[in-house]
Amino acid sequence: MASITKHFNRTLALSCSLIALSQINYGFDNQAFSTTQSMTAFTEQFGDYDPETGKYAIPAYFLSLLDSLNYIGFAVGLIIGSLASQRYGRRMCMFSMSCFALVTATITVTSHSKSQILAARILNYVYIGMELSVVPVYQSEIVPAPVRGFIVGTYQLSINLGGLIINSICRGTSTLEGNKSWRIPFGLFYVTPFVIASLIWFVPESPRWLLLQERIEDAENSLKRLRRGTMTDEAIATELKSLRVGLALEPEKGKFRELFQGVNLKRTAVVVAISFFQQATGQSFASQYGAIFVKSLNTINTYNFTIITSCVGTVVCLWSNFFNDKIGRRKLFIAGSMVQIAALFTMGGLGTASPITKQESAGIASMIAVFAVGFGLGWGPLTYVVVTELPALSLRDQSQRVSALVNIATNFAVTFSIPYLIDDGYADLQSKVGFVFGSIAVCACIFVYLCVPDCQGKSLEDIDRLFHEGVPVRKFRGYKLPPVEGEGKVEKEKETV
């Protein structure tokens, strides 16, 4: 803990805490919609009455739409946020998305029809898309290299924490009568955007973004605010010089097509594959459909189960954040993949029994919690770390845009398909869907072993040099880069560009 705190002064701590808070609404939305779908009042408000059973139920088609069409808003928000962040700065993007979220929260809380709640979720995901486009990038740009994994990993940690908070609240409101049982949890959507919009101007702009805008003096002042008290003035000046040297030596000009040219093609392929595998291994089955699926098993209280899985995911994710800068990204990725593989195949195997006993149903439910352990250990937090530290400095926004769109498209495809895969009126796989996602998790584990580098402890500029000097990705961690030339090199490079 001491090795982490020594890198933080008051300004950097405030910045990281505030930005981490902005991600909690993602967890609020993700888990609130998952949990409230199992509430009687929510089902009666937005479901259809079945005269044969005498009960209300949300039809599979609307459940699929509710949990998949939101990714249209996600993609739109990602593009808008990425362009706004690149053009107007990280802080302006975060301020704008927070103001927008206050509007979408109002639409959500006042929903009374299928069309309104569906529109509300799509619009709220515009905010979440903007958040994904800017938050991990900003985090990776402002923190020192030795704690980059810890801080960027808080993106997933905050999502888990938001899920834990909202699940706990849903547990308490589930006993209330009427629509207030689900309107109260949705009312929390107001809190985080209001705090962010009010306080975002108290944190510094990204020094790296300011350098890209050729605002050298502003970049120096921002870096001083983020480092003063933990580094000497000479060390701060050296870091600023290193940032300028790295930018000057970088051959990329910030054009989108450069993502797919030369060594950047390898970098883009890695971040795209990482974003794909994070969603393709079935995390949405556990996070968005877990509550409904567990309810169908009739083994454990749905609300207690969601709280348990949220607690487990949060604790494991926190542990991963503390140690990924020491243990390494690859090892935790592989360990997390192995846990996921074991959980998914076990879940699938238990589902082959006919009939499925109560003990087997309990085992299936427990495997969803075990899956959450694997996800929180590796693919949850570390995806955001890797996809923001590998791209070229001037291509970071474009790379984040592409990788996140792949992430969203994969999440959409998986989320849209799950009801049809598990519903007894369609494929009727039930827990045997674990065989599908488990097979993909095996591919993900192999990919990490062969293609994902360990970059902990290295600055973003050093990572850029490692790629351009042709260092094999599996040798990144132990490779020692020769020193670069000094400030004079910066001016020389600027004259030749």
From TrEMBL:
Subcellular localization, as worded in the UniProt entry: Membrane
Entry-linked Pfam families: Sugar_tr
Alphabetical keyword list: Membrane, Signal, Transmembrane, Transmembrane helix, Transport
One GO molecular-function entry: carbohydrate:proton symporter activity
Membrane-topology annotation of the record: Multi-pass membrane protein
Ranges annotated as spanning the membrane: 58-80, 92-111, 150-170, 182-203, 303-320, 332-352, 364-390, 402-422, 434-452
GO CC annotation: membrane
Keyword Transmembrane attributed: yes
Highest taxon listed in the record's lineage: Eukaryota
Signal peptide: 1-27
Family: Belongs to the major facilitator superfamily. Sugar transporter (TC 2.A.1.1) family.
UniProt protein name: Uncharacterized protein
